Amino acid sequence: MSIIHLTDIVLRCPSGLDHNLPDESHISLKVLLNNNKSKVIGPLIKGSESFWKLVENLQLPTGVLSFKITPRRLENYEFTPLGSAEFFCDNLIAMSLAQINEVVQPLVAATCDGPAFELCFSSVVIPSDEPPTIVALNEEQIHQVRAVRQSDQHPVVPYEELAHREALATMLHYQVPESRRKEFLQAFPDLLYQQAVTLRDDDPQKQDMLPTVFNLFHSRYAQDKNPLDLDKAIAAVDDVVKITPDGHPRKADMLAQRGAFLLLRIEHQLGNEHIPTTADFEGAISDLERSLTVTPDDGMRKPNRLRNLGIVFRHRCDLTGDINNIDKSISALNDAVHLTPEGYPSKPACLCQLGLSLTSRFEVTRNPVDADEAISAYNDAVQLTPEGHPDKQSYLNNLGSSLMRRFEHTGELIDADEAISACNDAVQLTPEDHPDKQSYLNNLGSSLMRRFEHRGDLIDINRAISAQNHAVCLTPEGDALKPLYLQNLGISYSSCFERTDEVVDIEKAISACKDAVRLTPDGHSDKPERLLGLGTAFMHRSERTGQLADINEAISVYTIAERLIPEDHPDKHSYLNNLGISLRLRFQRTGDLVDIDNAISDHIDSVRLTPDGHALKPGHLHNLGLSFVRRFERTGDIIDIDKAISAHNDAVQLTPMGHAKKPDRLNSLGISFMHRYKHTGELSDIDESVSAHTDAVNLTQDSHPHLCGYQTNLGNSFTQRFTHTGELVDIDKAISAHNDAHTRDLVDVDYAISSYNDAVNLIPDDHTHKTTFLNNLGEALLSRSELTGSRVDIDMAISKFRLCAKSSAGIPSLRYRAATKWARLSLKDNSSTTLDGYDTALALLPRVAWLGQTISDQHKQLLSIGGIGNEAAAAAIALGQQETAIEWLEQARSVVWGQLLNLRTPVDELRDADFELANELERVSKDLESAGNRNDSFIPSDKQLSMEQTARQHRKLATDWDMLIEKARSIPGFEDFLRPKKLEKLSRAARSGPVVVINVHEARCDALVVMADLDDVIHVPLDGFSYTKAEDLQRSLNKVLSTAGVHKRDARGPQMVSTKHDNLKFEEILSMLWTNVVQPVLAALVSIDPEPPRIWWCATGPLTFLPIHAAGLYNTRELGFKTSDFAVSSYTPTLTALLERPVPAQQQFQGLLAVIQPCTPGLSPLPNAEKELAQMEQLDSSLHIHSLSGELATVESVVNGMQECSWVHLACHAIQETSEPTQSAFSLQNRTLTLSKLISQPFPHADFAFLSACQTAKGDKKLSEEAVHLAAGMLAAGYRSVIATMWSIMDEDAPVVACEVYSHLVRDPQLSSTRAAHALHHAVKCLRDQLEESGKSSFTSWVPFIHVGM
């Protein structure tokens, strides 16, 4: 293709008049083609007062229709156009063919000031490989330049000889060939500077050379971005300022130049995440202000200097936060705009800088006037910039960003629409290879995202992802902005996932956000924001999959991000809000109250920090309400649900109609009213609930994935109102709503019910919300069946509850409740699936009380869901499945202790099959046991991060444990590894005597006797007993004990008194136990024997707190009417606790640790404790007693002693802590030895414990099946045999029992704890005889002593 060559290009002033351009003026040509591409050539070389010559050709392809040439003068880094001329290529080609050699074109002046110029050149059309030669000017400099250009190796004139010639040096800088330019810049500026500084200050040549020096250093900085070159440029201009006297015309220019260079150094520091020096800020401001005092208002020097001053003030405000700086910035930039003539090319750039400063002030003050004025400034900049101008897209982009900021503050959709329009125009005007293209694409994507959040239009989010993906693809690796673009892309994918529920979207979100975090260095100011995006992605995935690991990841990154963000950061509220959400989600999975308390605290702070009118405030209020609801569901505190309704009401009121989140907030408000209705029974609350849910459904598009949830909740509201009013229309509406939730378009209710199974298939099986929908659907069907008696509805309800319970996704506690409903409904109808339902519920217990929680939280979880074991066992017995009943009771009782024992299960056999797996199981089990005993209550704020890391590690260990167990079960022969034990193995617990498991339930009461030599369970129906009778007996006993003063928390003392009336009442209780419980059992087992056999009692329900071992008729002295006449009684919390544990070969007795506390600080004295020790020390020396008394009995010394000894005797006060069972404790000298501490310690020689203290086997009524008392804790700690007390004991009785027990034990040559039950049996008989002889016979004195374990 041919090329048009423009040669001999000359700019001249035809009038010959003085053109007022300084001699050092730098003039170049900007060429703008009609395809919006541009290029700059020059500089032009001055030939005379009115003549400049370009020493190179301009080449244009013949395919270009037209082009515009604009000569420009550079001053203080601002280009001033001298006019422009437009040329059409067709005309030039015609002139070339006509051999018209010279083209002369007058320039259209940019302003009316100054002389008129004209542009002259010759045009030649020739092939591109034959460029025409340049017509040389008749000047020596041009000859030298041509020589330099013709040689790529050595310049004709050495640099050193040219250094003193300023004009030629500048020309050389721009005219050397590209291959030589870097070499030139590396050497020449320093050589020139060295020569300049050797000259005298009064030498005019020095004053001429130094400006060239600092310009060259600046050029080298622009090429390499080496800050040392900026330092040299500033040093050079410093030299000029110093040698230029005050009052000299150049002084103001040099001050302004130094201020401009200092501004450039400040921006370099900021761009590289460094803090500029105070000296640079003060120097730049001083120089620019001094220059302004002598700069006249006319011309462009003053506006340019005001603009630089405004920029410096803005940067200082951003760094220091001093609002006075941004005020000064805006003042300076306002003056600059007003002094810049209309139509002047630099006015749009000045307006843009004013917009930036106004935006900065808006970010601090949130004054809407600043936002309005910023938008006005940007809008003027856009309007004043002609089409095709290369800066037009930048101004459009800034306008869009400013409009979007105002939208985020006010929520006015028109701002979002206009912002997207401006950003889109900026993208369309920017060539693909433009360095700012990706930035404009990112801003467009972010703006579309914000509008999507408001409107919920999928077109917006898809466009946002497209633009942001494009931005990421255009950004090279290593670019500082790539992490930002990746983060925004990840956020958009997260939002898209929320709308579409497509798993691929959330996977892409996590991937993009991870890359953003990875590419952002630690310490970077944007690191918190990157972490925020990643946490949001993890949180969204957890809501879809229900994976606790994702919630933990979200909390971890949110916590780190929130700690990194300063307290006064304007976005602090967003970080707190997201952290609160993630903590709430984890609470819903684990039930850890610490999480929901922290979530509410974070949400309250988030709302407090969010300014009124802020677009995010409704969302923060909504999340605060949700957290209050969750805590109310757990604690039942009416204050929480009142606060929830208040927060949700505010959120709804502040959310405008048409907002995408309005239905969701209405739905939450409806749920809150529903909760309060269930608590108070106020009909107005259920009416409000129906109203809110109805509005939520009506405002939701048919294609929205949350519609099914809203409709389900609407159905629940109608169901509840039906139960209150009995109006059939309400239950019909409930079924209809559930039908809509699952089948969308189906309206016929009968067809809906028959199609429910198909409807739930619309929700993916692995979706964590599917279980919720199934459960709610089952509830609605059940409600209608209660009205109509429809067998179909019941069967369908059972089906839905079964699917919910069997689902692999969903919250374990919800699935557990669904399983219980399935079992109970089936039991009512004698369905064959009853046992399956109970079996499923029991299998979920370890998931509800998960090992990833502390022991305390596991107990709280079990308390929140209620017991199922007794109910399941009663059902199994009714169906003739006594073996199943035994297995289920074992599975449902002492769940927490059972899991602890599993952690201590030897893995020797597994080690033979998989050595590494066994070792890993041992490691994880030890770490898990330690983690389960941590206490997260009352954590100081400065420790919460480390505690969160500890809790996260705990949950990871639990997840690892589950995976390792599954891996072990995949090994042949280990399929049942750590699964619930079957009767075949459990029956070994009865190797030393029968174990009687007594199931007490509202439906029936039965005794199930396990004997080692029998394959079947002996079933003894307790027809004369009931759950109600057991409760009555428990209440009667508590009353007697309270009257006698033996229910005091720490009472072991002489103040306890038992009246004759109390004894008679006690006798009545023991008589009823004998008649209704014990006698029927013993009748089936044994006869009177001089040496009574052992028998173990494993009671349930209220019977757990009654003294079965003392049951009998005490109005007669004949044998055969008391439990003790037939057997030596022991108790056990479970059969598993009696199974043989591996004992190290030839384990020797390691002595007895006696802990004696006669005077514990803060508690009543126990004077007989020392007597107790004295009597023990008088016994056989084979006991090897190691005593710790008084001040020696500290927690540390006692634990150490227990680790060294086989037996331990604790004569002290004890505390039963019902609110925190694991904090039940023995009171020692320096502090309490808690149950949680005991079970966390290794006691390698543990064998027998005598707890000569009060209430050590009392237990907790609310957790009757969990045996949360000190005696059971000692079993869990490894002691095989324990003597304990059911209530407080007399201080004077304790030495009698202790002495008799140890006297009986030392009779055998080989000390054995297996004789402890017989020893206690004998000791209690002795105590009872002594009391009768002294006339002080009292059941409250001898009955509390019991034996637990082997």
Features:
1350 residues; alpha+beta; 25 strands
Write up what this structure looks like.
- The chain has 53 helices and 25 strands.
- With 1350 residues, it is α+β, with helices and mostly antiparallel strands.
- Strands 1, 4, 5, 6, 10 and 11 form a 6-stranded antiparallel beta sheet that branches.
- The longest helix has 26 residues.
- It is elongated, with a radius of gyration of 44 Å.
| Main sheet record | 6 strands, antiparallel
* Approximate helicity band: 55-70%
- Please work out how many helical segments DSSP would assign: 53
- What is the straight-line distance between the termini? 104 Å
Shape: elongated
Q: Which blocks of ≥5 consecutive residues have pLDDT under 50?
A: 131-178, 741-759, 936-945, 1048-1056
Radius of gyration: 44 Å
Structural class given helices, strands, pairing? alpha+beta
Q: How many strands?
A: 25
Strand content: 5-15%
Could you tell me the mean pLDDT? Answer: 80
